[in-house]
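My hope is that you will study the protein record below before we discuss the fold together.
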Amino acid sequence: MLGDVVYNPKKKEKHDWGIGSFILGLFLIPLSLVCIWKNERKIVVYHKLMDKAKANLVEMPNAEDAVDGKHEYELVHVRGITKANDELECTELDYKVQNCYRLKVVTEQYQWVETQREERVDKDHTRTVYDYSKQWRTDKVDSSHFHERQNHQNPDKAWPINVQHTASAKDVQLGTQYVLKEESHSRLGSYVSEGFQNDEQGKLQRVMYKLKPLATNNHFRDFECRQLGGEYYLFSSSDESATLGTEHIGSFRISLQYAECGEANVMGQLVADHQSKWTFRKWNPEKEKVPYGEDTSQRNEAMCACYYLCACVNYLFDVLAEEVVFEHWDGARVNIAPKEIIKGNDAAIQKLGCFLRPTCIFMCMFGFYLLFAPIIQLLAWIPLVGWLLAWIVKIAAAITAFFFGGTISCLTMAVAWVRFRPCVGITLLVLVGLGIAAIFVVPIWLEKDKEAKKSVKETDI
């Protein structure tokens, strides 16, 4: 739907003469070099951590057996059956589940949604374009303010119920000997929709008893359990003639989902909590013996001149791959051996590092290229030949950025590898030395050769 054309002249862009690009280049160069250093460090340190994890891993034979206290603070792997001791409930629906990590209840209605965007007609005029789509929404959309209301009307009836509820178990056990804290069991389980099959406890009857008066009082149809897109929902509708369980304007549904306990694996540091119960936390060799309750996360401190820049890069790399071991897996992956998990994590970081390495090198080259932006912009303003001069400088800037950016990036990488991979680093330093020679020594040698040839010519004459 097109709105009215309005007068909205295009603003003239202020010419910054390439200063903004120049400043961006000054930022990108140190950022790329810091990222290169941290990337090489992460690959090596994480690989050493995984090797140490494989060497120190202790296999606990059974989650039901008594725990030997000598294994406290060690990296262990335990496999067993999890059990949640508390009941999760949604009081609005009188719905309860047992032995589950989490419960999620969501109410939605299928409605018209309006979005707006500006479209330029010419340099002096714009118009608003209104797009309409049908979506499942957890909030009620008022269509009375739509630009085109005639064919995009949402029901004005109040919802029979509006619930957005999430609950998590507080007391989860692994076997009979271990307790899983929330940071552990929140990583286990996957949501399954409640279809009320084999409903021996009469859950559906209780839920329907709760919903029937709500639907009647708000002039909605009685709820029914139907399947849509492979998931089960409790469907109702404000449209008396529509088929329940279909996507039509006014269709209303309730999603009941739970993550059920079952067989699971945990790999982490074994530690006794304040109640002397065995539990797990992140295994960090640098914080191996710290008392329970203290954070064992790995946070690398910035130790270079660009403190804030290094701190930001450190935080980013810690989020991508924290240097600890704390793994949980179940479901289709439950039979994977713990050392395969460690190996897979190491391979993933290696792949990430191989992707970041050329990306950071290109970033450095691009930063050097942006340093030429003021000169390019200045030349572009020269009448008639400005565009040609600008393109010549662009090509020269690209070549210069390639050699300078590539050489400095490789130098940074070589120094990092001398620090973390000495043999490879020394080899790379030799190659960087050849690159520096190509930049500075070869031009001087060519100039001397040219002068020598010139003096020979003069002597012959």
Notes: The chain has two domains: 9-56+302-324+336-461, 81-263.
